[in-house]
Amino acid sequence: MRRLIDRPIRSQDAQDLLEGKVTAAELEARDKAKAKTAPNYIRRPLIRRPLTTTPTTKPLSLAEQRARSRWQRPLPAILAEAMAVNCGLRDRMSRSVKGPDWNHPELYQATFNELWEATKKQIEALEIFCRVEWSD
Question: Is the pTM of this model over 0.85?
Fold first, then answer.
């Protein structure tokens, strides 16, 4: 097994140049030759995709349309999203938030403190609300 210490740090070209196996002019000529033969772009095959992502096999029936229009997101999903948004806001504010200018830092600090407290209260309220098993 080779250890990391045994591996050369430099590229093979740089190693050859340091050891005197090639000259700088030879390396430049080699690089120019590679640049001329290599294409400047990568050609990708054309993929034709439909404009819509859903299959358009048939239109929805009246019952399916009614069911789709009456569907509501489940309450646990709504609560989980609200909790994630508030926790993300709290984490973002705990890292660093800066005001637009520093002419009135006390105003920005007061606004920040109010938002911080409101976010903490909302997280606490959501945690309490999630403890109850609500039904629709």
Answer: no
State pLDDT tens for residues 72-122.
888 888 888 999 999 999 988 888 777 777 777 888 888 889 999 999 999
Distance CA 78, CA 134 (A): 12
Gap between the Cα atoms of 23 and 8, Å rounded? 19
E strand or H helix that includes residue 63:
helix 62-70
3-class secondary-structure state, position 10: coil
Q: How far is it, in rounded angstroms, from Cα 66 to Cα 62?
A: 6
Q: How far is CA 7 from CA 1, 3, 11, 17, 27, in A?
A: 11, 7, 11, 17, 22
How close are the terminal C-alpha atoms of the chain, in Å? 62
Instruction: DSSP for 65-127, please give it.
Output: HHHHHH----HHHHHHHHHHHHHHHHHHHHH----S-SS-HHHHHHHHHHHHHHHHHHHHHHH
